[in-house]
Amino acid sequence: MSLNNSSNVFLDSVPGNSNRFQVNVINESHESSAAVDNNTDPPHYEETSFGDETQNRFRISFRPGNQECYDNFLQNGETAKTDASFHAYDSHTNTYYLQTFGHNTVDAVPKIEYYRNTGSISGPKVNRPSLLEIHEQLAKNVAVAPGSADRVANGDGMPGDEEAENKEGEDKAGAVKFGWVKGVLVRCMLNIWGVMLFIRLSWIVGEAGIGLGVLIILLSTMVTSITGLSTSAIATNGFVRGGGAYYLISRSLGPEFGGSIGLIFAFANAVAVAMYVVGFAETVVDLLKESNSMMVDPTNDIRIIGSITVVILLGISVAGMEWEAKAQVILLVILLIAIANFFIGTVIPSNNEKKSRGFFNYQASIFAENFGPRFTKGEGFFSVFAIFFPAATGILAGANISGDLEDPQDAIPRGTMLAIFITTVAYIGVAICVGACVVRDATGSMNDTIISGMNCNGSAACGLGYDFSRCRHEPCQYGLMNNFQVMSMVSGFGPLITAGIFSATLSSALASLVSAPKVFQALCKDNIYKALQFFAKGYGKNNEPLRGYILTFVIAMAFILIAELNTIAPIISNFFLASYALINFSCFHASYAKSPGWRPAYGIYNMWVSLFGAILCCAVMFVINWWAAVITYVIEFFLYIYVTYKKPDVNWGSSTQALSYVSALDNALELTTVEDHVKNFRPQCIVLTGGPMTRPALLDITHAFTKNSGLCICCEVFVGPRKLCVKEMNSGMAKKQAWLIKNKIKAFYAAVAADCFRDGVRSLLQASGLGRMKPNTLVIGYKKNWRKAPLTEIENYVGIIHDAFDFEIGVVIVRISQGFDISQVLQVQDELEKLEQERLALEATIKDNECEEGSGGIRGLFKKASKLNITKPTPKKDSSMNTIQSMHVGEFNQKLVEASTQFKKKQGKGTIDVWWLFDDGGLTLLIPYILTLRKKWKDCKLRIYVGGKINRIEEEKIAMASLLSKFRIKFADIHIIGDINIKPNKESWKVFEEMIEPYRLHESCKDLTTAEKLKRETPWKITDAELEAVKEKSYRQVRLNELLQEHSRAANLIVLSLPVARKGSISDWLYMAWLEILTKNLPPVLLVRGNHKNVLTFYS
After folding, report:
1. What is the pLDDT of residues 626-643, one digit of tens each?
2. Nearest of 772, 750, 765, 749 to residue 810 by alpha carbon
3. Angle of helix 408-437 versus helix 321-347 axis, rounded to 10
4. For position 101, what pLDDT does the model report?
5. Which residues contact 1008 (CB under 8 A, 6 or more apart)?
6. Sign of torsion, CA 106 112 115 116?
7. Which of 16, 268, 571, 861 is deepest in the core (most CB within 10 A)?
8. How confident is the model at residue 1084 (pLDDT cuts 50, 70, 90)?
9. Are 454 and 465 in contact (CB under 8 A)?
């Protein structure tokens, strides 16, 4: 029993069945066929498995009586091949049809590896089969390594990739990664619960009252919640690397915003370390004061304790993220115990001492009295809000270590939003409890009880047996308004509150000490600020930024020792708020840009809410401190300008790019609804440069009259086999566009593959552009080698001029004495650069060997170097692809190089001579006028030359001057040429005749039969009849050259009306001869012919 190999066996037996993955098991043995025939059931089919497991590859069901057939099939070593023994492209074996779907073809099934970035830390990037590999005919001899057929056929890459993948997996496995609780929730809670909870919240309730106090908390929470939602949306819109707020902003808004906010955000975290440590040190110093254990004086004690604390925190951070995370958990436990201790203390019956200090447990009268505000002098709602708001910040503590999270997309939203909720509930709970238990003012004296017969002032304390009325006239030390240690007094065990203060300050300091280097390292890795590249290096499996830790330590120490933290604190708060504002704006901007790539998995956000959050953050910045907000904006603006000027070479697919595209698309569509008007005409050019770097002079002169005013498209036609042409075209597209950008040329690059040059240009003329932004002018270089060129090249060259006129597109032909093509020069330059690189590589190798070998080895290497004639490289000066300095004349034509840069130089005082011989709508006049507006050409004056009658020279000169003045075009002089139509001198005509002699048919000198035969064999030659019919035109071209030699020999540029060759009347070689004789031995010439539609108007 065996399985039939023939292809017809595997075709669907049931017409119309759409499933092609079926296995029809057929018995070829005559002995077994009878048994099979006895089975009246129809043949049974089974789909192959869609699983990847080997044991599921051959899931074939069988009917009763047929099991033996399947057993024989599975035991047949010839048919049941293993994966390692079949050919990846074998479609004629049994195994091919039994392979899992997607593994039996070069076309690959969807896999995550195809969508990773190169160097992804989450796994290796794999290249799927290219469209070319799938579309082209399959190579007959394809070598596939055993065991790798599935990988290659499925696009998984070659077997050698497995080793790199395993190695990367091992490195990743060794790194410490945190979940959403330890990585985000714990950090955010610790950072939000700051020292403000213990020493300022009671004062805020005293000033604003319970009602407005809760409103202040909710308003602060609204800002942080909106920011948290925006953060969650951005974090779930793709894989998040390390860098926290900087990464989120830079990948959304681009390097300009990200680079500016990233630097100040990292600096803010570094200074925040000093702020939190000083808060801790001040608490310790207060305890030392109470026990009379001061070391020097309060200020220096704070410095000493702060410095020691920072060193200890640095040691914990440098020890690794795992130790730091353990420390954070311990601090959170202490903090939770301290908060619980406060709530427990509120229900423990108060004693007389605490009552004298204003604590009476829960009392409705105290709650009612404290519900409304009672702002003291100089305070108000916004000033109190400004004091509290920094306590609500810290929501980015988890996002800042995004690179150390197992799943940032899940951890950041869940941990951040839950932390905001828990901390808000705690803040509101503490505010309400302390407002319901403690009065605003208390004397602290147990003797201030109310004696019978005394008049009560009506306060809540008075109703509870205490008279604190003297606090209205003299300052008191206790109560919500006066005592910052209210929570310690209320709590069940006071020292636990002190421990809570220590925990809150140290945890915030530790979080900032970790966040600052992580954010800074991510910023440095992106190389936005090249001077900071030193801090990009990481160490260990977790890629710890040890250099960043040291820098953060230095900054923190500096501000602990010398800075006025009370002055710097508002600026730091504003730095954080600026980050929040940009995160909100990033979310809004990404949504508003409507990019298909904006698909956040976290859907609980709204673009307008995010915009409101951004505006709210900016408003809060000014509420907290207006001058600090101004300083923040100035610094951010300066850094934004710096990064924009430097233009970092990064592409992150930011929403700025998406919005630019949408804006450009909308503008282009809007433009199509507006009819063209002559006042808005501008030359929009297709320039046949080939590669833009190969004909720079042609591009430069075109760019001179299109820059900032019109469209310029550098075009290249690839002629030859389509497969090779498309490959070459696609490989160079980005490089050539990048060359244009690098050389600050405002132009696009476009290329087509065609069977012949003319067909390619015809395609470009018809299809280039978009909407109203379509080319209206074709710019080509003059074909200098036309006499030696093959017939097809001349036909193509003249043909594209005819095609342009057929499509009603103007034509500009540019001629310079040396020609345009410098491709040979570039080739020489590339070879020299390769030699230079090889020489530098050899020198580096020699230096390495010098380090390894002793002094004897060094002497030997010097001998080798002298033999190789290696000299110390001299520093290169800035140069472009168009400029090559100090090279031997024998290697290339130095004059050609100089000519290629002539339009880059500033043109001195001179003239642009405009020979406006034929009215083409005004393009011949408009182009030179635009040139005079450019910086390089502004010193050149326009001289206008027109044809006229000898007896009406003055009248025609006045008429032309009037026309030019109506066009508002300034000119230096007008010349009326009255002798254009006279015959040229004999020498000039003889030159022309010698020029066309090789291309003449001379049919009049031969008999009729011979002449007809020659016409059929060489139809491209110039006939005597043709030459006689256009003799006057030929005279005109030769005569015009004489006049040009006479009048415009010294001009900087000549702009001349292009003669038009009537199709079917003027042969290609005669037309080329006209162009040659017309522009021979002259300065740079622009032969211009518009499409005979007005491009100038004198109407307003």
Report:
1. 888 898 889 888 988 888
2. 765
3. 30
4. 54
5. none
6. negative
7. 268
8. very high
9. no
Beta pairing, strands 1085-1089 & 810-815: antiparallel
Half-sphere exposure of 274 (CA within 13 A, CB side): 25
CA dist 921 and 1090 (Å) reads: 6
- For residue 654, what pLDDT is reported? 74
CA distances to 82, 86, 137, 661, 1003 from 141, in Å: 21, 14, 12, 46, 59
Q: Give kind and range of the element (H or E) at residue 281.
A: helix 255-290
Closest CA to 343 of 493, 460, 186: 493
Identify the sign of the CA torsion 557, 563, 565, 570.
Answer: negative
Helix axes 298-318, 255-290, angle to 10 degrees: 130
Give residue 91's pLDDT: 43
Chain centroid to CA 691 = 26
Count of CB atoms within 10 A of residue 1006's CB?
A: 13
Measure Cα distances from 411 to 117, 225, 231, 424, 514 in Å: 22, 16, 12, 20, 18
Residues with Cβ within 8 Å of 427's Cβ and at least 6 positions away in sequence, in order, are: 197, 201, 217, 391, 392
Return the closest-CA partner of residue 226 out of 454, 416, 447, 25. 416
As beta bridge partners, residue 1086 has 814, 1055
Closest by Cα among 768, 676, 670 to 715: 768
Cα-only R_g, the chain:
42
Work out the burial of residue 667: count CB atoms within 10 Å of its CB; fewer than 13 is exposed, 13-18 middle, 19 or more buried.
exposed
Contact 19, 47 (CB under 8 A): yes
Report yes or no: 243 and 121 within 8 Å, Cβ to Cβ.
Answer: no
Continuous segment of H or E residues that includes residue 910: strand 910-915
User: Amino acid identity of 196?
Assistant: M
Angle made by CA atoms 593, 599, 605, in degrees to the nearest 5: 80
Output the CA–CA distances (angstroms, integers) from residue 104 to 137, 404, 896, in the order listed.
16, 40, 57
What residues contact 792, with CB distance under 8 A and at least 6 apart? 756
Among 47-61, 362-376, 517-531, 789-803, name the most confident range: 789-803
- Give the span between the Cα atoms of 1023 and 1036, in whole angstroms: 19
Structure tokens that stand for 1040 in this block? 């015009």
Asked if the model's pLDDT at residue 762 lies above 90, the reply is yes
**Mean predicted confidence (pLDDT) in 59-87:** 42
Contact 1017, 1006 (CB under 8 A): no
**C-beta separation of 966 from 1078 below 8 A:** no
Of the candidate ranges 131-140, 237-246, 390-399, 743-752, the one whose mean pLDDT is the lowest: 131-140
Report the sign of the C-alpha dihedral through residues 1086, 1091, 1092, 1095, in that order.
Answer: negative
**C-alpha to C-alpha distance for 120 and 546, rounded to whole angstroms:** 22
Enter the pTM of the model: 0.67
Q: Distance (Å, rounded) from C-alpha 469 to C-alpha 458?
A: 10
Q: CA torsion, points 129, 135, 140, 142, in degrees to nearest 10?
A: 0
Give the residue from 798, 793, 672, 777 showing the smallest Cα distance to 715. 777
Average pLDDT over residues 522-530: 84
Average pLDDT value over all residues in the chain: 79
Other Cβ atoms within 10 Å of 806 Cβ, number: 11
Tell me what pLDDT residue 119 has: 55
The pLDDT of residue 36: 40
Ordered structural domains, the chain, with CATH: 180-442+477-646 (1.20.1740.10), 443-476 (no CATH), 684-816 (3.40.50.620), 906-1085 (no CATH)
Helix (H, G, I), strand (E, B) or coil at 629: helix
Per-position b or e across 365-386, b if 16+ CB within 10 A of its CB: bbbebbbebeeeeeeebeebbb
Of 226, 252, 212, 218, the closest CA to residue 615 belongs to 226
